[in-house]
Amino acid sequence: MTAQDRQFDPGRNRHLAGYRTLGGVPDELLDQDGNIRPVWRPFLDHFSALSDKDLARRFARGDQYLRDAGVFFRQYGAEGSTEREWPLARIPVLVEEAEWNSISAGLRQRADLLEAMVADLYGPNRLVANGHLPANLIAGSREWLRPMVNVVPRGGHFLHFLAFEIGRGPDGTWWVLGDRTQAPSGSGFALENRVATSRIYSDFFADSHVFRLAEFFRSFRDALHGLTDGPGARPAILTPGPLNDTYFEHAYIARYLGILLLEGEDLLVENGEVMVRTVDGLRPISVLWRRLDASFADPLELNPDSRLGTAGLVSAIRQGNVTMMNALGSGVLETRALMAFMPRIAPELLSAPLMMPNIATWWCGQPAEREHVASNRHRMMIGSAHSTRLPYESEETTVLGGNFRSLADEAVRNWLVSDGANLVGQEAVTLSTTPAYENGKLVPRPLSLRVFLARTGTGWQVMPGGFARIGQGPDANAIAMQRGGTVADVWVVSNGPVNTASVQSTPQRPYVRTRPTVLPSRSADNLFWLGRYTERAEGMMRLLRAYHVRKAESSTAGAALPASLEDFMKFSGIDPDDPVPTGLLHTINGAITSARNVRYQFSTDGWLALTDLENTARRFSKTLVPGDDTARAMWVLLRKITGFAGLVQENMYRFTGWRFLSIGRSLERAIAACNTLAVFTEPDAPDGSLDLAVELGDSVMTYRRRFSVFTSRDTVVDLLALDTRNPRSILYQLTEVRDQAAYLPNASVNDQMSQLSRAILEAHTSLAIQIPETLDADALYDIRSDFEGISDLIGETYLK
Amino acid sequence: MIYDIGMKITYEYERPVSVGRHLLRLMPADLPGVQRRLSGSLKIDPVPSERRELQDFFRNSCVEVGYRESYAAISFEITARVECVAEIPSLDFSPDLTTLAVEIAGYRGLDPHAPHHFTGPSPLIRPTPEMAAYARELISPDQTVFSMVRAVGEALNRDLKYDPDATEVDTPVEEAFARRHGVCQDFAHIMIACLRGVGIPAGYVSGFLRTIPPPGQPRMEGADAMHAWVRVWCGIETGWVEYDPTNALIVGTDHIVVSRGRDYSDVAPVRGILRTSGDQKNDQSVDVLPVTVGG
Questions:
Q1: Does A307 contact chain B (CB < 8 Å)?
Q2: Do the beta carbons of residue A236 and residue A285 sit within 8 Å?
Q3: Mind listing the pLDDT tens digit for each residue in A387-403?
Q4: Which domain holds residue A294?
Q5: Burial track A411-435 (b if 16+ CB lie within 10 A, e otherwise)
Q6: Between chains, do B110 and A135 touch, taking CB under 8 Å as contact?
Q7: What is the percent of chain B with per-residue pLDDT over 70, rounded to a whole number?
Q8: Chain B interface, mutation test: which of A121, A128, A521, most B Cβ atoms within 10 Å?
Q9: A325, A342, A368: which is the final residue of a domain?
């Protein structure tokens, strides 16, 4: 130990008690003499000075942020997918600037190499012709997409956004473990890790000289915009959709960068141009940041079974009308066996050796290499040559050669010979360790880093930071990462102050408000149905509450229960015998499904309110008994669902999507009100029906204020159908629909009303001139069919 | 041999299709040394709002069509005159399997004719140990590749039952093989899997057969619709040879090539992506008639 280290106050260093580095691998925190590396000292001083209580409070703050932001981790297993809490390690990984610069230089060179390779593989194929790559390796790759051969990408580049998985080897240098060229994920999660971690250490972070991530994203956003056709054009992220395990990230980045989030279904190819189906008609789009695996992108020319793609997309690319980031087919670069050839290809294509080595790899399709792998199998990972996964990703059949001890040498050799072209051996690398916080102290755990590169106007930029994976146990073999673990923020620490501008800051003056984004028809459709389903669910809850209150009363006071109520419930799709009918659960589920498809359009609070509602309803469905119990439960559900409606009403930006949601809600409410009034205000309706109508219309308080005690048919119909000051009346809904529809695109063309505007005005007028006496059941059903016609017309006009 | 070819494919949909897009591989190919297309036209009804011609990776000519208006039925009609000049190799210069492997490894290229595309699994063909074992039984190491092709093709023609009702377009190869029956597409897929299983590069050909056999010969199976057969790479010297396992013969001038690929998925005559619900039915009629000299 050096003199300097001995000066450390053991109390301040208490978390390090028992920190034992693993033999044979470097540690990020301690150097080989056991001294704390300078880059860690300020952070460790700060960390060690925090009391356990303070630390717990800070960790809770970080966790709370992640929960609020809705960051979760989706896992696929035998039982389908589950969402679990984001496994953030609360200790960041620290890297000093000089070291980072050399990592960056190595990766920028590798990015250039990959670009040159992919251009060759889809162009002249010199690497194959000159014997630098075996032809069968490329021909056998599922990611070498024949329809893309000889297609020169618009803008000239195949690769725009890359990630590299790197690890530090025993000699202290960094190695590339894997290239991610298809649709690299993790940059959004890196951002979220950063926000959460900087909240934990908020006071320290502010002056910590840690490079911020915003500038990287700002340059990339500018690059994206730079590739579009003009000032009005927008880039978009193309996502496989909400069921993908990294959908959260797609939505998050789209929101963060202010670009559209689209699915294949949102797009259409017309005359070789890619168009977005929006509520304002077809709009061209020319830049797609693709998060969808290439083979799914176009069912016509690529995988015909894909339901996620857009027919004709390849044709549009071939005609040079759209930039794909990254180009379709760039996934071939992830082929594991390519790593065996890259050290020799680099001097060929770049006239320079690789600055950062990749993990030593031998393709077993060649006799000498195969022999080498067989003889050294005890220190090899042996796996598929064509695999595009990292050696330690789950569902991977890579095995440590040492595990074959039970097998005779001969058997391994035979395997390598018979299937050589499909196998690679890779050196079984070990990783460096970094401190992780477990049970109140720091322990060394293996680490790999994912580093992101974006092509910008000034060349490749490296995100100063990244996404760290931390292994679960003390095993430093890279392959042990298969067992999972945690993720951590990466701090690149400068020697001096850093630029702290956020992604939004812009030097432009005067301030110009950005144009509202176009709204894809599919999003509008989901929002419209979200409005309808939540309103429908609310109506069902009122109905159930009214029923069970009366049921409870009838059992005690012997009051008669209107039979028409039960019929009406059945008509509305709910079973009176079931406290939480499946009809209600399905409706709530419909709302959730719609919401999931537009999750990025509204706040996390709104999403949480809905999922909370669903969870509560499911819980209730197992325990409730009819009567009082259920009536009280419906109060609870109603409070929750009106909470959601309140969030939508109070907090949601009045973009076009909100108007669809609002129109959906008003239409549903109006249709339900027509039904209620038609049944319960009939002249021969049983006693208590009028009160029931008022209750179902949620207008009890208003009614009492306006009309004192006596309930008459005319007053009820007036209040619930015609009173423009009652926000529950039919006419009020229709006015809402009229007002919101006026804001929709093409509501009038050259001062001429659209078909929809005319239909709404017509319905509005015919209701407004009614008086309670004329508004009988037939008239109400007529009005209801007007509403249904309007709903269909909205669907045809905007939502297809 | 000159043929007049007529084919009409129609699809009828239960509900109208909105936004349809099709990729068509229907036109007889123009292949120097094999066949010459003297004329050819493709009529599509209704007339598409967009239509483009292109060549795919394997140099097949394709037509891409798109519709903006909806339609309830669509038909594609081919009229072509083709001269077949293919010659059946009279001498066998093909190597044995060991030499073939060396020649494959020595082929440094990924052009459409490179054997490397046709050695491993392809979208619809996953060679299985059963099919490889079947083929291995039929051949001996001292044989030439060309004679192996005949041996495997003749054995399959004997062991598989031609049964037009046996399979749908998407029956997996291994299933058709296990049941030992199928249509021309299954015969071709099974033969390809068998050959690849023993290390012989093999691909898929779609096309037409002459409807009426030459005088004195039996009518061939598969003449009333588009047909499928196999092409095999028999080494550098011999190159590609075509074999029809459904009729157990080396392909000569009775077959007219439309498209070539690794398996059916590369050459599907009509690929369509439609926005529709409900069923569809289709119908196909083919006529391939020799043009008599002076006629």
A1: no
A2: yes
A3: 888 766 644 556 665 55
A4: 213-325
A5: ebbebbeeebbbbbbbbbbbbbbbb
A6: yes
A7: 96
A8: A128
A9: A325
pLDDT band at A481, cuts 50/70/90? low
Give the gap in angstroms from C-alpha A766 to the nearest C-alpha of chain B.
35
Q: Which domains does chain B have, with CATH numbers?
A: 2-85+268-290 (2.60.40.2250), 97-267 (3.10.620.30)
| pLDDT, tens digit, 9 for 90 and up, residues A276-287 | 999 989 999 999
CA–centroid distance for B231 within its chain:
9
Examine the domain organization and report whether A525 and A640 are in the same domain: yes
Quickly tell me which residue has 């037509």 as its tokens. B63
* Local confidence band at A95 (pLDDT 50, 70, 90 cut-offs): very high
Question: To the nearest whole angstrom, how far is the Cα of B281 from the nearest Cα of chain A?
Answer: 19
Give the Å distances, CA to CA, from B61 to A149, B29, B115, B202, B267. 15, 7, 21, 21, 10
Chain B stretch 95-134, residues whose beta carbon is closer than 8 A to a beta carbon of chain A: 104-105, 107-110, 114, 116-117, 119-121, 123
Specify the number of domains making up chain A: 4
Per-residue pLDDT of A654-699, as tens digits, reads 888 899 999 999 999 999 999 999 999 888 888 888 888 888 888 8
Q: Which residues are paired to A444 by β-bridges?
A: A435
Q: What is the mean predicted confidence (pLDDT) over A571-588?
A: 92
CA distance B116 to chain A (A): 5
Cβ-based contacts of A367 with chain B (< 8 Å): none
Q: Give the pLDDT confidence of B160-210 residue by residue, as tens digits.
A: 999 877 656 667 899 999 999 899 999 999 999 999 999 999 999 999 998
Does residue A734 sit in the same domain as residue A749? Answer: yes
**Could you tell me whether strands B161-162 and B181-182 are parallel, antiparallel, or unpaired per DSSP bridges?**
parallel
Would the CB atoms of B66 and A269 count as touching at under 8 Å? yes
Q: Report the CATH number at residue A290.
A: 3.40.50.11290
Average pLDDT over residues A603-632: 88
| Model ipTM value | 0.94
Search chain A and give the residue with CA nearest B55. Answer: A147
Q: Is A782 domain-assigned? A: yes
A612 plus A739 within the same structural domain: no
Confidence of residue B291 (pLDDT cuts 50, 70, 90): confident
Whether residue A682 sits in one domain with residue A638: no
> For residue A140, what is the nearest residue in chain B, using CA coordinates?
B120
CA-based nearest distance B120→chain A, Å? 6
Q: Strand ranges (DSSP E) for chain B?
A: 2-24, 35-45, 50-55, 61-66, 71-84, 161-162, 181-182, 202-209, 227-233, 240-244, 249-250, 255-261, 270-275, 280-290
Burial class (CB in 10 A: 0-12, 13-18, 19+), A263: buried
Q: Is A499 left (phi over 0), alpha (psi -120 to 50) or beta?
A: beta
> A448 in a domain, yes or no?
no
- Nearest chain A residue to B261 by CA distance is A146
Give the closest of B21, B114, B268 to A135, CB-based: B114
* Tokens 């509202």 belong to residue: A516
Residues 260-299 of A with CB under 8 A from B: 268-272, 299
Task: Identify the closest residue of chain A to B67 by CA–CA distance.
Answer: A270
**Residue B22 to chain A, least CA–CA distance (Å):** 7
Residues A675 and A795 in one domain: yes
Smallest CA–CA distance from B18 into chain A, residue = A800
- Residue A553: exposure state from Cβ atoms within 10 A (0-12, 13-18, ≥19): middle
Closest CA in chain A for residue B121: A140
Q: Find chain B residues with C-beta within 8 A of A799's C-beta.
A: none
Domain assignment of residue A38, yes or no: no
Between chains, do B104 and A269 touch, taking CB under 8 Å as contact?
no
Examine the fold and report which residue of A397, A412, A427 is the final residue of a domain before the chain moves on: A427
Q: Which residues of A touch B57 (CB under 8 A)?
A: 146-147, 149
